[in-house]
Amino acid sequence: MGHERYPDSQEGCIDFMIPKPAQKATKDAYQFAITLQCINAAEDGSKEWDHGVFNCLDNLPLCLAVMCCNCWGMCIGYRNMQYMTGDSCEVAFVNGMVAGSVCLGPCHYAVVRGNFRKKYGLKGSPCQDCMCGCCLGPCMLCSDTNQLMVSEGITVPFLNGLNAGGAGGAKVSPAK
């Protein structure tokens, strides 16, 4: 069994402590921040969201779980990231934690959500993604989860209370 060797340098230390995907996610979030994408209000996408930011109550069990149990909300959030990015939920967790630890959490979320919106042609802007990620986290989590349930056909155990437009059978493979 071979062991990976890290150079005795600053880069080696970073590679040892922070996985490559998390380094890329943080660089993407940093690039988003320094190019001031967070003030880019130009809307893209043509399709309306099936369940918008302020439609939390479309799925009352999910809304209550997110609002009353932070741990469950975090699990749902990182599982969503798995479907949005194609990375495992463990990689999504590490990426989010590393970006958040250097105050780039909302920018990281805006990059991921922006790519998700592009994939499905959903309306929105980088500014909306970033500002909502900063100020409306639980509402965004419900919106993303409900949209994923519709778009990907996934289900969240015990929390499938979607009104009209809800998902059918469960799909278990993450986005490619």
Q: Summarize this, please?
A:
With 176 residues, this protein is mainly α. The protein contains eight helices and no strands. The chain has one domain.
Distance between the amino and carboxyl termini: 31 Å
Helix content: 55-70%
The gross shape turns out to be globular
Low-confidence stretches: 164-176
Largest sheet: none
Q: What does the oligomeric state look like here?
A: single chain
Helix-strand category: mainly alpha
Rg for CA atoms: 17 Å
What number of structural domains do the residues give? 1
Query: Secondary-structure element order, as H and E?
Result: HHHHHHHH
Characterization of the model:
There is one protein chain. This protein is mainly alpha-helical and 176 residues long. It has one domain. 58% of the residues lie in helices and 0% in strands. It has eight helices and no strands. It has helices spanning 10-17, 20-34, 60-68, 70-85, 89-101, 105-120, 126-135, 137-151. α6 crosses α7. The longest helix has 16 residues, at 70-85. Mean pLDDT is 81; it is low at 164-176. InterPro entries: PLAC_motif_containing.
How would you summarize the topology of this molecule?
Layout (H helix, E strand, L loop, with lengths): L9 H8 L2 H15 L25 H9 L1 H16 L3 H13 L3 H16 L5 H10 L1 H15 L25
Give the tags.
0% strand, single chain, mainly alpha, PLAC_motif_containing, 176 residues
